[in-house]
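Human: I would love a firmer grasp of how sequence relates to backbone shape in proteins. Take your time, and here it is.
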Amino acid sequence: MSRDKNNNESEAFYSCHCTPATCRERCGHEIVDVLLHEQADKDPALIDALLDLKFALTHRTDAEEILAVFCDLRQRLERRYYLAFYRLRRWLENQLVAHVSPGRGYAARSFPLVLKSKTVQGVTQLVRDTARETDPVFISTETLRIDFAFRTPATTASGLLA
């Protein structure tokens, strides 16, 4: 492999400037793999949580579970692994979206996810505030229904188990 090709692959791996359209689906898995490697001889509870995140990312069935596990890990590990969590945070913002509606049976409107908060409740509140700032329908509704989902379906979930 040429030196230029290695440099381009390194830039792509460490890039935090992707958009939802250009974001590599495997990037989040690679970051979790690096964190797993770093924790190999440490706290089994952290390893379990990282494996839970990897499993959830692989199967892409519950975006809220992914947020919950990510927020838990972020609170526990971000001080030691800030760059990895910065990249994972940016990747999740490109992969996930919040669907907000005034209640069951109403059409939902999609909002991008901004992971400024370290808790699911904080992320949910930020989505709620953003929805109310941008659409008068949401201002007049006391409770909003917020569902988290992937922007796009996985292309090959079984291929991500590696």
In short: The longest strand covers residues 96-101. Residues 13 and 27 are 7 Å apart (CA to CA). The beta strands are 96-101, 109-112, 145-150.
